[in-house]
UniProtKB/TrEMBL annotation:
GO biological process: translation
Native source organism of the sequence: Agrobacterium bohemicum
Gene Ontology CC annotations of this record: cytosolic large ribosomal subunit
The family this protein is said to belong to: Belongs to the bacterial ribosomal protein bL25 family. CTC subfamily.
Residue ranges of domain Large ribosomal subunit protein bL25 L25 in the record: 8-95
Protein name: Large ribosomal subunit protein bL25
Length: 208
């Protein structure tokens, strides 16, 4: 479970808009907002370097953080961030206020184990349908990942959400169907070989 937390310094900002945002970015800061918990949103500025480091370290969207805004502290969960589409630098972050009783919706990464105990070791290919599962979870108990055990799976088998042991208090957002997480498919080489055999057979038939 994700118990790690961290603290970032931020400053409140009164001016908003494109001009103000550009000025912040020139000074190494990112415009951001804290919202939720039935309170008015707060516009803030936060270090570009610090946020970028947290994103690159992984788990940014599933780790509760503390924002120190001019001495006042807020427990938050990052809910969204934007990058410049051309130069790929951070341009904005949204933070959701949370408390010990908060329920949040997050994308939880899916990890696979025991590939060597499935038909993957015989050449089967793991076709991942969902790399993450969107779920409702307590803000103070967000899992690092959902683990899918591939032990014993054969080519042609599928893993559905009902077959996965979910961490405690994790409830998938999708509840109206038993959605697929992954499948084990035949090797691509085998599929190509079969196609070539079919073509060869058809050509032989025509030549007779």
């Amino acid at each position: 479970m994700s118990k790690e937390t961290y603290e970032l310094k931020a400053e409140a900002r009164e001016r908003v808009g494109k001009g103000s945002s550009r000025e912040l970015r020139r000074n190494g800061l990112i415009p951001a907002v804290i919202y939720g918990d039935k309170q008015a949103p707060i516009s803030i500025a936060i270090s570009t370097n610090e946020v970028t480091k947290r994103v690159q370290a992984g788990g940014f969207m599933t780790t509760v953080a503390t924002l120190d805004v001019d001495g006042k502290k807020y427990k938050v969960l990052p809910k969204d961030y934007q990058r410049d589409p051309v130069r790929d630098f951070m341009v904005h972050v949204d933070f959701l206020r949370v408390s010990g009783n908060s329920q949040v919706t997050v994308e939880i990464p899916v990890h696979f184990i025991n590939e060597e105990k499935s038909d993957i070791k015989k050449g089967g290919v793991l076709n991942i349908v969902r790399h993450t599962v969107e779920a409702h979870v307590p803000a103070n108990d967000i899992p690092d990942a959902i683990t899918v055990d591939l032990d014993g799976l054969k080519v042609g088998d599928s893993v559905h959400i009902s077959q996965v042991t979910l961490p405690k208090n994790v409830v998938p957002v999708i509840t109206d169907r038993d959605f697929t997480i992954a499948t084990i498919v035949p090797p691509v080489v085998a599929i190509v070989d079969e196609a070539e055999e079919t073509v060869a057979t058809e050509e032989d038939d025509k030549s007779e």
